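WARN retry 2 of 3 for item q-0093 after timeout on previous attempt; input resubmitted unchanged.
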Amino acid sequence: MPMTNLPQDILSNLPEVTSDETLSNTFMGNVVELAIVTDDHVKTMEGLCRLGIGPWAVYEFSPKNVTDQTYKGEPCEFALKVCFAKSGNMIWELMEPLWGSSIFKDFLDKNGTAFHHVAYDCNDAPWEDRLAEFEKRGFKLVQSGKWKGKNAFAFFETGDATGTTFETYHFPEDWDYPEPESWFPAKPEGEVTW
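OK item q-0093 returned
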C-alpha cells in the first residue's frame, strides 16, 4: 500500500519494490559491521563485554599499516585504535581517534561516544564501481585507506540523508586478519576464525 501522505513528486522518484528485501536500485549487499566511535576503547569494550559482546581483537591503524589514507578528498595521515568482536555473522567495531584529522574525531568532538556507522560488503562489485555508485547517488567519499595494503575501506557522507555514516570495504580472497596487538578481556582458546 503506497504512503498517500507523501507528495506525488517524492513518490514518483522512489525505486520499485522488487522483493521483501530489495528495491530496484539495491546495490550495497550485506550488512557486515556496526561501529561505535569512542573516546576510551577499553571502557567501551568493558561495557560491551558486560552485554556478552566479545572477545575483542585490538589493533592500531596508522600510516605504518594503513596506506592511501584520505580525509575529505585529500591525503591525510591519521591514527586510530580499532577493536573488532564477532557477533554471529556480523562484526562489532570500536574506533578511538588517536591523532590526525578524521571523521571519527569530528564525530567524537560533536557527539561523544556513540554509534557511528554501518558497513556493507557491496556484493563483490569491483572496488572502483562501489565508490562510483555511492558518488553517483550523491554521497561524497569522506575517509578512506587500505589496511595492510589490501583491505580497502571507504566512508561516505550519508548522515544528512540517513542519520548515520555508511562504509564499504573490500576483503581480497587472500585476506587474513593479522594477529592483534592484544585481546580483551583475553585471547580466545584454540583457533581464531574470522
